[in-house]
Amino acid sequence: MAKADYIRPVEALHGKLKKEDQVGFAKRRASGAKFTVTRDDWKQTFKDAEKAAAARERQMKFKGVSQSVSERMTNPTYQTIDRQGFAAQSKYTTLRGYVFKKCWDAYGD
Question: Domain locations in the chain?
Answer without folding.
Answer: 1-42, 49-106
